[in-house]
Amino acid sequence: MEFEGVVYKIMPATKGVSARGEWQRQEVIFEMPQEFSRKVCVTFFNKESEVARLKEGATYIVSFNIESREYNGRWYTDVRAWRVQPKQESAPAPAPDMPPIGEEPAYSSPAASEVDDLPFGCRTGIA
Asked: What is the pLDDT of residues 19-51, one digit of tens each?
């Protein structure tokens, strides 16, 4: 799953050692820009380099998994990020390169000054 969010706050990292070795857990609060904006706390587990690249106020696409677990009769839910990408802002389309609008050119030949209401400028000589 994924969502688009603005980094609201980067929390301090928590470090520890387990039977598997050292670990680091860091939480980042994202705000999802909607009519009623919501905040989501996302956990980064052993992803120090990804968290270091995040900037508060910047928009990212966050890919994540949701997992719940039970402890002492209570349930806890984690939103764990597995990838974070900066949102690519779409550049505005460049304006077409057109010459400025001016007056119609003046024609010097008298035949060109005749009114020609045929669609392709062809004349048959039929009156």
From this structure: 999 999 999 999 998 888 899 999 999 999 999
Alpha helices in 39-123 (DSSP H): 48-53
- Give this prediction's pTM: 0.65
**CA distance linking residue 37 with residue 79, whole number of Å:** 18
Give the chain's radius of gyration (CA, Å).
32
- Residues listed for the chain: 127
- 82 — alpha (psi -120 to 50), left (phi > 0) or beta? alpha
3-state DSSP assignment of residue 39: strand
Q: How far is CA 16 from CA 23, 52, 70, in A?
A: 5, 19, 21
Distance CA 67, CA 79 (A): 7
User: What SS3 state is found at 64?
Assistant: strand
CB atoms within 10 A of CB 26: 22
